[in-house]
C-alpha cells in the first residue's frame, strides 16, 4: 500500500512586523554644557571643564550665526590658560577676535584683545595693536554706559589698559621714535581716568626712571604708596600682589629701600613662598647697606647712614637672600638671572660678615666690618669699598 501524502496546512496570512520606533537623540543643550564647564573651571578642575566646553562648541557650530560660538571660544581659552597651555588659549582668543573684531559681543569684548596682547607669540607691534583695539572698545563702552557705576568700572579698566600699553612701549619698543611721546600721552590719560589708583602713578614712576628723572619718580611712588599702604589687608583698593611686587622693584631702583622692604614684608606675610618678595627685600637691604654703591637712583642716600645701621641692613640682606635661595632650589625657579644675582650677593656678604654660623642663620659677629689699619692717615672702613 502506497504511503499517504501529507496533508498541507493552509497558509496563514502574516502581517509584516513594523520596526520599533526609536526616538531621535536629543541634541545636547550648549547652554547647560557651558554652565557645567564653567562650574568645573571655577572648582579648579580645568581637565573636567574641557570635554563639555568642546562639545558645546561643536553643537553651537551648527546653530547660525557664527557668533553663537563666542561664549564657547572664550571659555575654552580660559580653560587652556588654567591647563597651562598659552598657545591653545591664544588660538581660541584669536578665533573669537575674527568673529567679533569690534568687540561688541558681551562674550568677547575688550578682554579678548587684552589677552591676545599678553599671549601674542611675537609681542611688539602685534601686541600694541591688540592693546590699542582693547582701549578703543573700552572708550566706546564708557560712552554707551548708562549707569555711573558701570562707567567708573570701565574707566578703571581703561586706565589699567593704558598703563599696560605704556609698559609695552618701554619694554618692547623703547627705541621707536614715538615711544616717549606715546608713553607721556597714555599715562596722562590714565591719570585723568583714575586719579585715585596707584597703577598710573607707578607707571609714571617707571617712565621717569627710564628718563633718569629720579626725584620725580620718587614723588610719583610716594603718592602711589599714600593711596594704599595704610589700608587693611583684603581691602579691594590695595593693589594685587603682582602690582605690589612691581612697586617694590621700582622703589628699589629709585633708592627708596626702606619703603620697598616694608612693601615686601607685607607680601611675604601673605604669601610666604613668594620668591620675588624675598629677593627684592634682600636686594633692597643690600643696597641700603651700601652694597654695589647703591646704584644710580641711590646717589647720596646711603651716605647719610652710619656704619652700624648699614651693617644691620647687610645682616638682614643675608637672611632674606638665604630664604630666597632655599625657595629657588625647592621650587626649581627658572629665572637664572635672579639665581645668579642671589649667589653673587650672598658671596659678597660672606666676605663682609664672615661665614654664616650653622643652625641659626646669623652671621658670626663683626668679621669684615672692623676698620682697616690706617695708612698715611687714611682710616677707611671695608664698608667704604663695597
Structural notes for this entry:
The structure is a single chain. By secondary structure, this protein is mainly alpha-helical. 62% of the residues lie in helices and 0% in strands. It contains 15 helices and no strands. Mean pLDDT is 86; it is low at 359-386.
Provide key terms for this protein.
386 residues; mainly alpha; 15 helices; 0% strand; disordered C terminus
C-alpha Rg (nearest Å): 32 Å
**Spans with pLDDT under 50 lasting ≥5 residues?**
359-386
Shape: globular
Question: Structural class, from secondary structure content?
Answer: mainly alpha
Give the distance, in angstroms, between the N- and C-terminal Cα atoms: 136 Å
Beta fraction of the residues? under 5%
Give me the strand/helix succession: HHHHHHHHHHHHHHH
- Tally of alpha and pi helices: 15
Helix percent reads 55-70%
Number of strands: 0
Biggest sheet: strands, sense, closure?
A: none
Mean pLDDT: 86
